[in-house]
Amino acid sequence: MPDRKRFFLTTPIFYVNDAPHIGHAYTEVAADVLARWHRQAGDDTWFLTGTDEHGQKILRTATANGVAPKEWADRLVETAWKPLLDTIDISNDDFIRTTDARHEEGVAVFLQKLYDEGHVYAGEFEALYCVGCEEFKPKSEIVDGTGAFEGEKVCAIHSKPLELLQEKNYFFKMSAFQDRLLALYAERPDFVQPASARNEVIAFVQQGLEDLSISRTSFDWGIPIPWDDTHVTYVWFDALLNYVTAIGYGSDDPATAAEFARRWPGNHLVGKDILRFHAVIWPAMLMAAGLEVPEHVFAHGWLLVGGEKMSKSKLTGIAPNEITDTFGSDAFRYYFMRAISFGHDGSFSWEDLSARYQAELANGFGNLASRVLAMNAKYFGGVVPAAGEEAEADLAIRELAASVAAAADARIETFAIHEAIAEVWRLVDALNGYITEQEPWVLAKSEADRDRLGTVLATATEGLRALAELLHPVIPIATAKLWAALGAEATLGALDAQPIREAGRWGRLPAGAPQQPLAVLFPRIEVETQ
Ligand code: MSP
Question: Taking the model in full, what pTM does it have?
Answer without folding.
Answer: 0.95
